[in-house]
Amino acid sequence: MKLLPILLFTFMFFSFSSEEKSQDPLVNLETLSTEFNYEIRYATPNNFIGETLYDCPKCLLRPEVAEALLKANQYFCEKGYRIKIYDCYRPLDVQKKMWAKVPRPTYVGNPYGNGSIHNKGAAVDITLETIDGYYIEMGSDYDYFGREAHIDNYNFSKEILENRKLLFEGMRKFGFNTIRTEWWHFSFRKNWSYKTLNVPLPCD
C-alpha cells in the first residue's frame, strides 16, 4: 500500500516540473545569436493593418523554440542562407487589434477563441535570404492574403518552388510545422502546453 502514495507523488512532481519547464520566460533571440536578420513589420506601419502595432522591434520566443530556431538557422547557414525574421511573440492585445481589422480566421487567429501560436511565443514568421543579405523570391510578399501565399500553390517558377521547398523542409527538420495559407508561418509543434500571453514587449 505504501507504493501508491510514492507513485502519486512521483507523477505529481514530474507533471509539475514539465508544466514549469513549458512556461519558462520568453527569451530575446538577439541575445542568443547575431546570425539572424530582422524586419519586424509590426513595429512599423508597413504591414497589412497599416499601423505600427509594436512599440519596438523585438523577437521573443520560448527558450525551447528559440533553441530549435538557432539549429534551423545553422542548417540554412551551412547551405549559404540565413533566416530573416518578420515576427515572433505577439501580445494578445495586438492580436485583438488585428482581429478587429481583419476578422478572417484563415489568416488571423481569433483572439477570443484559440488565438495564435504567436501569442504563446511558439511561432515565427520568416523567410530566407543569402548570407550576404540578398532577397530570395518566395512568390508573394509577407502577409499577403491570397492564393499566391498558399503553400499548396505550385503555379510558380522552378526557382520559387525550390526556395519554398528549402525553407519548408529545413524548418520541419527542427520541429516546426507549416500552415496551408501562409508560406512564412511556422509553429513549433510542441506548443500545446504553452500559455497564451499578453505581456508587453520589453522596449527599454
From TrEMBL:
Location of the active site: E182 (proton donor/acceptor)
EC numbers on record: 3.4.13.22
InterPro entries given in the database record: A_A_dipeptidase, Zn_M74/Hedgehog-like
Binding sites annotated in the UniProt record for Zn(2+): H118, D125, H185
Residues annotated as site: Transition state stabilizer: R90
Catalyzed reactions: D-alanyl-D-alanine + H2O = 2 D-alanine
Cofactors that this protein relies on: Zn(2+)
Keywords: Cell wall biogenesis/degradation, Dipeptidase, Hydrolase, Metal-binding, Metalloprotease, Protease, Zinc
Molecular function as annotated in GO: D-Ala-D-Ala dipeptidase activity; metallopeptidase activity; zinc ion binding
UniProt remark on cofactor binding: Binds 1 zinc ion per subunit.
Enzyme superclass (EC): hydrolase
GO biological process: cell wall organization; proteolysis
Family according to the record: Belongs to the peptidase M15D family.
PANTHER family reported in the protein's UniProt record: D-ALANYL-D-ALANINE DIPEPTIDASE
Main function: Catalyzes hydrolysis of the D-alanyl-D-alanine dipeptide.
HAMAP family cross-referenced by the UniProt entry: A_A_dipeptidase
Name the record gives this protein: D-alanyl-D-alanine dipeptidase
UniProt source species: Aequorivita antarctica
